Amino acid sequence: MANVLTRAGSFIAIIFIGYFLRRKGFFKAADFDVLSKIVVRITLPAAIIYNFSGMELDLSMLFVAVLGFCGGILYILLGFLSGLHSEKNIRAFQILNLSGYNIGNFALPFTQSFLGPAGIITTSLFDTGNAFICMGSAYAVASSVKGGKTRHLALRIVKTLFSSIPFDTYLVMITLCLLHLTPPQCVLTLAEIISNSNSFLAMLMIGVGFHLSGDRTQLPVIVRILILRYLTAALLSAAFYFLLPFRLEIRQTLAILAFSPIASIVPAFTAELKEDVGLSSAINSMSIILSIICMVTVMSLVL
Q1: Positive or negative, the Cα torsion across 283, 287, 288, 290?
Q2: Among the four residues 155, 225, 235, 303, which has the most C-beta atoms within 10 Å?
Q3: Tell me: the pLDDT tens digits for 22-31?
Q4: What is the value of pTM for the model shown?
Q5: 3-state SS record for 59-119
């Protein structure tokens, strides 16, 4: 318990350092994009390569990817049903801002530090299924509900997925694991060195990008979406831990992952949908705070 709280406190401290340094002018707004590119294109793929290397992957574990996908579908459905009697743009906003998990930039650094190899593999597989939702499928549904143009949208989703370096890395490493192959040792050594900085840079990036820009009059919308999100997460977490037929460390990881924040790419898709980006950013930032509290609580209970 003390170890969990100490490590979690360290993550929170790094987020606070990033936020504090941005407020003091050490980091500029543009620096978030630079940090994001470093994490998404360099340190996160390196962490995936190193953590997957030499792992024995059972075919039954691929069901974890299905869980990541189905979790996203569930939130899309809840967003649609909760806004059933609202205007189309409100319903579309709720669909988009309820769905997707921030795994690579947030949850993976947690599991990388707290859980063993099985936890890291579980997180990566879960994120593989989640990527189909947060990289375009949720936006496609929201755009369709709003009445926007969805021509060639399926092609755009596929293109977005396969142009994502982490997603491509997941696919390559999963394939290698299933074939019982490993990358050359020189690649693994380099990946290990780079991956050691992933947790720090990911948390620092979150702190630099953290901001609450929603109008106070929109607080009821923020509260409604977050309550629906985290009540559902609590039910999923319990179901993952108590009902799934996996071994304990996998169920522990899934119980924690259920409380991952809303996908960090959602505000960008909200802008493309021509909806309220400030409100979306506020929801996204608040979900990070709530997820830290919930994930640390679950860790203290199940680890």
Answers
A1: positive
A2: 225
A3: 989 999 878 8
A4: 0.86
A5: HHHHHHHHHHHHHHHHHHHHHHHHCCCCCHHHHHHHHHHHCCECHHHHHHHHHHHHCCHHH
68 in Cβ contact with 129 (< 8 Å): yes
Question: What is the maximal distance between C-alpha atoms in the chain?
Answer: 58
Nearest to 213 by CA among 281, 287, 291: 281
First to last CA, the chain: 8
Helix axes 153-162, 117-132, angle to 10 degrees: 150
Q: What is the mean pLDDT of residues 277-294?
A: 89
Length of the chain: 303
- Asked whether the beta carbons of 108 and 39 are under 8 A apart, the reply is no
CB atoms within 10 A of CB 63: 15
pLDDT at 76 over 70: yes
Say which range, 106-115, 148-157, 191-200, 273-282, has the weakest mean pLDDT. Answer: 148-157
pLDDT greater than 90 at residue 141: no
The Cα–Cα gap between 184 and 29 comes to 38
Distances (CA, A) of 87 to 47, 79, 96: 43, 13, 15
